[in-house]
Structure formats: C-alpha cells, structure tokens
From TrEMBL:
It comes from Chromobacterium rhizoryzae. This is DUF3108 domain-containing protein. Keywords: Signal. It comes from the Bacteria. Residues 1-18 form the signal peptide.
Amino acid sequence: MKILLPLALLALSPALRAAVPDLVATISYETVTVGNDGVEKTIRYREKLTRQGKHVWRERLNARAGGHDHDHGAEDGHDHIDYAAASRHVWLDAKGQPRLEFALPQQRLLVQVGQREWSDVGFDGSWTLASQLVDIAKLKGFTVGPGADGSRWYRKTANGRSKQLQWSTRWALPLRVESRSQDGRHRESMRVDIHPLAAGQPLPWAQTGRLRGKDYMDTLD
C-alpha cells in the first residue's frame, strides 16, 4: 500500500546522505476513512526497518507474502507473490546504483528485480526514499519550526488538506507524518519508533543465503 505519497518528499545533501546513522525502526501506519454512509474504516499495519551503511531492509510485521492461488484454483501449484507484504532489500552496488530484491522465507525464495520491473513492485529507484522514507528537499510551501530533541516540524495546509511532518535531524528519518482532510473524513498517519543498531546484531540481508535466487520475470510464469 502506498501511504502519504504527498508527504514522501525530502533529499539531503550528499554529505548528509553519507552520514546517516545505522538504526532499527518500527513504522506504524494508520488510515481512517469515513464514507458518505457514515461508516468508518480503519487500516493499520506495521513495518520494521533496518538500515546499515548502504543497505536498507523493510519487512511487514505479521504478514505472509505468498500462498495466494490463481483465481481458477490451486491445481497448477503456482502461487502469487504479494510484494507489498514481502521483505524488501535495497542496497547500493559498487557503482552507487540501487539494487532491489525481495525475500520470501516461507517459499525459500530470494527474488531479484531488475530496473525495468521496479515500477511493477512499487519501487521508484530513489535511494533517499528507500533509506530515509521521505525526501525533505522536495517539500515546497511548508512552514518550518523547531521540535523536541532537535527535530523540525514541517506544516502546510492547501487544497483542503493539512499536512505535517516531524523530521529527526539526528536519525535522518521522520518521527511522525500526518495528513488530514479539512472535513475530517480522511486522515493518514505514520509514526516511527527508532533505536540504534546494536553492535553484532544479525543483519537480515545476511541471513538470505539459504534462499533460492529467482529472477522476478520468472515468477510471472
């Protein structure tokens, strides 16, 4: 699910990008919509993000990314892959170019996705967005004010929506992102709980050696 795309917009200078700290974060998403019939629908989910150097790993908590059968039944033994729920590994190669793969432990698969297919799985190729969730250099028309612990608040009201984002300069990551319609019938939020990456903590991308590599195009058969 794409969430808060209008707010997913902030790039740091090359010097700051090189200095982003290693961390582990839990990201909590919530979307609340009130329909014309008065029925309120709420969607919530959480992700875990691990960032170290040139690697970023995101995994949907409590999710199963495979095992959905074709509409005509399971007789062919083929499973759909839900890439939104699969664990995503983005890293920079020796040339500084992003690479992408998805880990599906239940199916013992490690799916490599080439650049031509990135849009198919919801990846726009931005290392900044992959590693920092938002690109603050692209926030236009937002007022900026101080927050707690050296953070900064970005706020804007336009086109019937109010938006605000709390940015941690220490972690180079948002702490909170919120978007709300002025009539209160639609609101989205993202909250981020951050901890330093502990020394010696197992890195999830280093645990994929037992998985069988497969090209994304081969999963479409």
